């Protein structure tokens, strides 16, 4: 079992680099299945989730090779349309292979990904969208079996701007006959990156980044080379860590417009930062104010930064309310933070936070990826020795986080017991 041992209470100084976005690279790897040409992706983070998606692509018949930060994917004319059960259940995000495999093979069989720690996470909107394109969906022994000899463009209104559903429909529609219009589409920067990538392969997608996406289906996709956008959630996590610990930290490789809702909340709470070329410099201090947060779809406050922001607010001046509107069970970090002396009360979908002057070190368990990030933040601010267990969750989405944090003076080590 691996754990992080953290000696908290140190200010952080220096520069820290943000890698390519996990939530962009995973669907883009899936979209590579649309083309029989060679795809090269640059700035691909070395994450557990990327390695699982690589295994999924290999299991379908593709070749995936990593050289440094680049990934080469050569799919050719693969035959398989069924993704292995163990891989799909390991990573929910692998559901995004549905659209491209269906488009290429006319059929896809994939285990129903089911729920996860943060909620039940159904895929009904993915399936409804694919059905609108002409697919037939069968549920058989816990598997989703989706077939469509021909996909036909359609007008699709999403009941909710789901990121994964938008991506699956976008990828299937990119290769469908005729025009598809997705209304109430997700507008996240990762959707824009996916659409840009598909367009580089010869796709015809307009409007990604707005809530109406227009997709003209094409028959052939070529190989291409594409640089993945920076990870706005990793960037936000580092910004919040720097704000919480105090000091002077420059977070490199940031697109500030992707972080507008976070920066607005930093302004409101009096945390000082400066936007610089390709980066954000944070000047942490101990006197930030409590602010309320409500998670929303993009461009609202991202649910993936709710946990680290909540951890920061445990030491803010005053009372804050954090409301989670996207996932029904995303407060598992709350009990862990309470064990460190945080004053938190859960009321339905909200947490009421009364700021305390300091947190106490503790032995903690990371229950999911972003909860794990919240615990690292809290442990780095608590003077003394903390341990965080179950850190495999963190390896899913943060590349060598302890090494990156050591680079700005954090006392954190990975211990294998
Ligand atoms: C993606 C991100 C995740 C982020 C989330 C919201 C990836 C790999 N993951 O997840 O980090 O937290 O967006 O920004 O990109 N829902 C349904 N039915 C569906 C689809 C979704 O009820 O068919 C619900 C979900 O249970 C959830 C909400 O809609 O409560 C949002 O989900 P969605 O936007 O689809 O998130 P993901 O794509 O799973």
What does this structure look like?
This protein is of the alpha+beta class and 417 residues long. 32% of the residues lie in helices and 27% in strands. The protein contains 14 helices and 23 strands. It has helices at 22-31, 48-60, 85-90, 98-105, 124-132, 163-174, 189-200, 232-245, 260-269, 306-313, 332-338, 369-381, 392-397, 401-406, and strands at 2-8, 12-17, 38-42, 63-67, 70-74, 107-111, 136-140, 143-147, 155-157, 179-183, 204-206, 212-216, 224-227, 247-252, 272-276, 279-284, 293-294, 319-323, 343-347, 350-354, 363-365, 384-389, 412-416. The radius of gyration is 21 Å and the shape is globular. Uridine-diphosphate-N-acetylglucosamine (UD1) binds next to α1, α5 and α6. Uridine-diphosphate-N-acetylglucosamine binds at residues 23, 26, 93, 119, 121-126, 160, 162-165, 190, 303-304, 326-327.
Give the gist of this structure.
By secondary structure, the protein is α+β, with helices and mostly antiparallel strands. Helix content is about 30%, strand content about 25%. The chain has helices at about 20-30, 50-60, 85-90, 100-105, 125-130, 165-175, 190-200, 230-245, 260-270, 305-315, 330-340, 370-380, 390-395, 400-405; strands at about 1-10, 10-15, 40, 65, 70-75, 105-110, 135-140, 145, 155, 180-185, 205, 210-215, 225, 245-250, 270-275, 280-285, 295, 320-325, 345, 350-355, 365, 385-390, 410-415.
